[in-house]
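G.,

No rush on this.
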Amino acid sequence: MAILQFFNNKPNEEHLFRTMKALARFVTVSPDVPQLVQMIGPNPSTFKGTSERI
């Protein structure tokens, strides 16, 4: 949940990339993470195109 709250602070590109990468790892480990993202956080697709890496 801390990652989702972090996304609301408009992080810079480097931090955004690292947190997206961590979120992707959490999704592979726990099947509950996508539901939490949908309920709590901003939609990850809103960050699409922020940089070449994201």
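When you get to it, here's the other one too:
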Amino acid sequence: MKKISSFLILISLFMLAGCDNRKTYADFSDLHLDRKTAFTVAKSEYYIYFYQSNCPACDNVKAKVIAQAKKGKIPLYFINLDDIYVAPAPDKEYSNIGASKFSELKIYGTPELLLLKDGIVTAQFIGLTINEQL
């Protein structure tokens, strides 16, 4: 009986640990921003992470992004671009550094991570380079 109880406890722990790995960006609804709120966060430094639900590259950086959102030193906020038109990039070299409002941003694909300090974009990470930054 004691072995069965120990086994059930062990299985339960594995199941609980596995559930945490299935978190989605939507699980962080309190950390989602939109066009109006992206540059109004009351923090001196924070990340904005742009994603789309049908983005394979977003899935590749998801674990690091979620870990940062949960307990990173720099707060991370999300913007879902599913309902926002993302134009094809005119060329591969573009920069959002220096932007201070949403209308100045050029987001041509996902995933993209911006670092803001005092309301101004100071760094930009595109695609899998996000894993290296976080």
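Residues 24-133 form a domain with the Glutaredoxin fold (CATH 3.40.30.10). The longest strand covers residues 45-51.

Enjoy the weekend,
O.
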